[in-house]
Amino acid sequence: MKPEVDQPENPLFTNGENWNMNACVGDNGGPYTLFQYSEGFFESSHETVDLIRSRAAKIDLLIYPIAFSYRHGIELMLKQLLTSMNNLLETGEGFKKRHQMSQLWGDMLELAGKYEEQLIEPEAIERAGVIIGHFDDFDPTGQVFRYPEDIKGNRHLSNHKLINVEVLQTHMKELQEILRRWYYQIEEHYGWMMDGRADMGDYYQ
Asked: Which value, in Å, is the radius of gyration of the alpha carbons in the chain?
């Protein structure tokens, strides 16, 4: 029996009888941030690589959504970091509406340099920059794994023959861990700042 839920009718995006297969979306468990969306794209690719490892999936087809989801996960996480860092610095700004990971990474490094404390070790930042740089060199527009051709009709990946998904997954897990730790550090410092102001307000009341 389908659980009762108050939402607009849509035969595709609806609830079903198997409650284990009903995903909580929107305000039902959320609202979710760029961080959660990023985690979802990373985990989707991780799970797909694990499925391929068990020989239960077609690797030559799944490489495209795997790599595309990894890239989108990186982009979303960088935008979350920029949002969180702007909150911590109280700039009143967000992130620039663009998709180039190298530019987003440069924006993040510039913002991080304005904060008085080092929130994550420099070696981790350097390593993350290297991984992001390699991915951005391979797919600067986010279209390489999304379409077989670019807008001019040139085939993507024409100079490449093999991509090992385990190698890719290893680097993506390393990058995800670094960016996740940085995010948590920023959020923790922001929480301390807000708590300190609340305490000062209570003191002067």
From this structure: 20
